[in-house]
Amino acid sequence: MRLSSRVLARFLGGLVGLISLVACAPDGPDSYSAPVDDAVVTTERVLPSTTLSPPPPESGETLPPPMTIAPVAPNGEVLQVRSLDNSYRLPDAEVLAGTEIWWTNNGRNDHNVLPVNEDEAWGVDTEDFAPGDEYRHVFDTPGIYFYYCSIHGTKTAGMIGSVTVTAAGA
Amino acid sequence: MKRKLAVALAAVLILAACGSNDAAPAAGISTAAAETEAPAVTDAPVKTDAPAETDAPVATDAPVETTPPAGADGVLRVPNEFGAIQEAVDAAAPGDLVLVSPGTYNEAVNVVTDEITIRGTDRAGVVLDGEFELDNGIRVLGAKGVVVENLTTQNYTSNGVFFTSAIGYRASYVTAIRNGDYGIYAFDSINGQIDNSYGSGSPDAGFYIGQCFPCDSIVDNVIAEHNGLGYSGTNSGGNLVIMNSTFRNNRAGIVPNSGSYELCYPERDTTIVSNIVHSNNQADTPAIDVAILAMGNGILAPGGIDNTITKNLVFNHDKTGIGLVPFLEEGANDDMPTPDEWEIGCAEQREEPPADEIPGTLLWEAQYNRVTLNDVSDSRVADIAVEGVGMATEELGNCWGGNIFTTSAPQDLENLAPCEGQGSGDWTLGVLNVLTWLVDIETAPPSVDYKDAVIPDPPELPNMPDAETAPVDPATNIIVDVDLDAMVVPDMPV
Lengths: 170, 494
Prior knowledge:
The complex is a heterodimer of chains A (about 170) and B (about 500).
Chain A: H1 5-18, H2 36-44, E1 78-83, E2 88-89, E3 92-96, E4 99-105, E5 114-115, E6 134-139, E7 143-153, E8 158-166
Parallel strand pairs in A: 1-4, 3-8
Antiparallel strand pairs in A: 1-2, 4-6, 5-7, 7-8
Chain B: H1 11-16, H2 29-35, H3 39-43, H4 52-55, E1 75-78, H5 85-91, E2 97-100, E3 103-105, E4 109-111, E5 117-120, E6 126-129, E7 136-141, E8 146-154, E9 159-164, E10 167-177, E11 182-187, E12 190-195, E13 198-200, E14 205-210, E15 217-220, E16 223-225, E17 229-234, E18 240-243, E19 246-248, E20 252-257, E21 270-273, E22 276-278, H6 289-294, E23 299-302, E24 308-310, E25 313-317, E26 320-325, E27 327-330, H7 346-349, E28 361-364, E29 370-372, E30 375-379, E31 382-386, E32 399-401, E33 408-409, H8 413-416, H9 435-443
Parallel strand pairs in B: 1-2, 2-5, 3-6, 4-7, 5-8, 6-8, 7-9, 8-10, 9-11, 10-12, 10-13, 11-14, 12-15, 13-16, 14-17, 15-18, 16-19, 17-20, 18-21, 19-22, 21-24, 22-25, 23-26, 24-29, 25-30, 26-31, 29-32, 31-33
Antiparallel strand pairs in B: 27-28
């Protein structure tokens, strides 16, 4: 039996309305507008003098000398990183300073987003990042920011990601 | 898609390889463990605590007797030599055995060393307890060939045992109770085996194998009860066999499904054979949303593709015994893969970026599944059933044959779509109408917090034979090669 398109549309509409089979993703980036409150929260964070995260500890590499680059204002750009079960997509984002990263938990499981460098004042804990939850942070200073989900990975393996932030015009 | 399932050796051979003393010897530790395995040695005081030997006068020309470091024999004993399992695991080298004596260990153990074995000397007596604070009992992160056997993991907020990105893994004689996501969870891992284990009281599933293709993995002789789902497998398949196991009194029994909330979609080519699946209508379990929606079904393949469901004994379900239904995924993370993409291996597919334009929802249809030779009874909606939504049901390519059953939806399903020959009949008679399930969910019993759910005490569960003395058998040689012709429908349990 093939359902007519009208019946199908009604059926799908009913499905959407009645159930939440999996994590409900927030609206897509096209419909996103950054709430003023979020920007305020972000700029109120106490940023370290440098936001260049160290590479994973196992790399054995020596950290480059700290950079002291002045933070820039949010530029209105937003990039979504989906937290699936159990990986970040995009795992390695590259953005200009001032861009907001918008993490959404599109998985069926709890996750979190924790900076590898524990001195960095961003990230979201498990209790605030259940399926359907979201977290936003504006990266206003160039650097490489490594992060991970402590449930499904460690600082160096499993569910890990990075945000590479470059200066505008660089 | 018609793909012949590769079959060869009898399941008996698979069983024989599981923890058998005759299994392929492991490098290094196997012989040493076998030669030094007397319980008296295990229980003897640790030599490093006995200063008399090193303090005693010795002849000047005699070699000085030194106490070997703990674990030098390849067996790292907890707590005799190491105070915590994690300490022993961190000290272990590939091929070593971490042998844990009875006790309660409030630890979350991380394993990153290849080919180590963590074994309890007593399955019920060696208890890893997360106290509803710790995430995972034992988490194997990218390490190859790790084995966990003969112990209990309970009260973890996420998983009892968690393998991720592991090539070669095995969990045997593991009891996983009341864990917040899954009992035993194998994710993005291949060449694995879960056997002789028990999972109860998890809101997602007692056992899970997901995001792998081909998985080359097997679930054999397990019991799952009082979970949201007995078995869940999202986007897994490819020489993946679920067999000889019991799934009872969960919200739903065996539920492989597709979804873009994990990579490597769709779910395809799983073989479900010779299982006992019954009474999966349990209303008082912890349950994620999918489990609530799937409640009352024995074997359900939402959006599953090219699966073989054969020779199972399935009975007493409020909805279907064996159902092939669509899965609607809200908040999709990619577009729908085309049939030619189904064959792409997970290693390659996971590197593909998502589509530029992602639809809001994906409707995964159950297609090209084969349901044969099952014994299905006492289903309140239908013993065997199918429905398409985005596609016409008759065009999904599923087939049925040789099943013992009373009711089907649509009616006369084996004549409508036989696995042999041409089908005939009217597909509009007695349709399943999954839309009614969506109404049911409105009044379905809600999830019970996994911390508070009333679950039965586990049945008497066997210990691993010769746990204190058996040589290690790292999971470097898992071969899944099941002869379906040799499998039979299980007898009705007493």
